[in-house]
Amino acid sequence: MFHLPKLVALLIICVVVSHVRGAADEPYRTIYVESNGNDGNDGSAEKPYRTLLFVAKKVLPGDLVIVRKGNYSGCTVKISGEEKARITFRGEPGAMIDRRDDEGKDGINLEGASYITIEGFKVINQRRAGLRAVENRGIIFRNNECHDNGYWGIFTGFSSHLLVENNKCSGSQKEHGIYVSNSADHPTVRGNVCWNNRGCGVQLNADKSMGGDGIISNAVIEGNTFYSNGKRPDKPDDKPRGAGINLDGVHDSVIANNLLYDNHASGIALFHGDGATGAQNNLVINNTVIMADDARWALNIQGDSTGNKIYNNILLNLRPERGSIEIAPQALVGFVSDNNLIKDKLMIEEDDYDLDEWREQTKQDASTIIAKDPSKLFIDIDKHDYRLAPKSPAINKGRRDDAPAVDRVATKRDESPDIGAIEYRSE
Asked: Is 374 inside a domain boundary?
């Protein structure tokens, strides 16, 4: 039998352990890209590569790709990282993707490639999406800006365990700021700002016609700001389309601490369109929604969107003929609502109700209150400062059960939480 010398065997073990440690705890390799680099270089800090497309074909699990300030063409990535050895593309300040590569329609497209982080890029004027991820798992899109793209700022399809965090998406010419599509569970959309998109601020659409079970489960949509979505600002006569938060076929999910204002269609919409069912068994809590003067309803629940719980929300509407909640009769099954602050106008199907009539019809909202003067709720509603005023009727009127422990700016909620996304702080 052949025996390795003890010293050689020990060296082999050390090399193996070192490689595993490097993959898990630090970048396996750091690769640099610079707009005046050369793809014939070695990718070091001193000799960076030039194009994202070249690097996208060379990355390995654990790699960190640092993209320096400059203007770049996009790329398609088909190589996966690993759960404990992610591939990261990190744009330094000023790294901009403003041209299309020859292989795709998007700024950065993750095509079947899992466990990849894309962070720090500005992506503009792409034919389809600024950032796209399809048929993968464990993708992180963080701290990017996606502006004036053809369809979407950020698009995903069949992308499970997704994190879309602290991005800015505006000016999508045909559809949404952020679009999470198809049957992929556990998406988190957190801390993003989306504005002036022709469609939704964010849409989650399970779309059974594309395959899968037609349901998105266990989504978290929290701490986002969505404003002036629903029509293009350069087309004032454009028909409003797409809610601030649009949820089709979404189940067992949490929508919390979001601020929505001046959106032109609905505020938060739970409905049954392309999904296998309506949006069911969701918790909508501690959101602040103020609709534009041409808008639909602040909260719109349609089809078989049953079992939804609505607590601690400010739901206001500046359009005289529209109000706070519109709900279909079938969506009243399992519907629970209380401790909201609303306009005294609600609707079941096509029938309008004031709060007393609504209580009689639904047996809900016993502790909900009416905002008699919206200007007194906030520090400055005209300047979109939606912090609560010192004597706001929303203070200490929320429900403790199910309320997020902190508000959208990490202020702790006490045993008597406030209504809305921002907890009052005396300063």
From this structure: no
In the chain, how many domains are there? 1
Examine residue 354 and state whether it is found in any structural domain, yes or no: yes
Check which CATH number belongs to the domain holding 148 and give it.
Answer: 2.160.20.10
pLDDT band at 78; cut points 50, 70, 90: very high
Who's near 98: CB < 8 A, 6+ residues apart? 71, 72, 123, 124, 125
Give DSSP secondary structure letters for 368-397.
-EE-S-GGGTEEEGGGTEEEEPTT-TTTT-
* CA pseudo-torsion sign 94, 99, 105, 109: negative
Q: From the CB of residue 62, how many other CB atoms can be counted at a distance below 10 Å? A: 21
Half-sphere exposure of 396 (CA within 13 A, CB side): 3
- The torsion angle over the Cα atoms of residues 101, 104, 107 and 112, rounded to 10 degrees, is -130
% of the chain with per-residue pLDDT over 90: 87
Structure tokens at 2: 């052949």
Does any domain span residue 410?
no
Query: Which residue bears the tokens 């020859």?
Result: 102
202 inside domain: yes
Task: Name the pTM for this structure.
Answer: 0.93
Lowest mean pLDDT among 196-200, 228-232, 296-300: 228-232
Structural domain for 269, as ranges: 55-368
Which residues pair with residue 346 across a beta bridge? 325, 353
**Which token pair is 216?**
């998105």
Which pair of structure tokens corresponds to residue 244?
A: 């601030």
Residue 306 CA to residue 366 CA, distance in Å, equals 20
- CB-based contacts of 264: which residues, under 8 Å, 6+ apart? 228, 229, 230, 231, 240, 292, 294, 295
- Sign of the four-CA dihedral 357, 360, 364, 369: positive
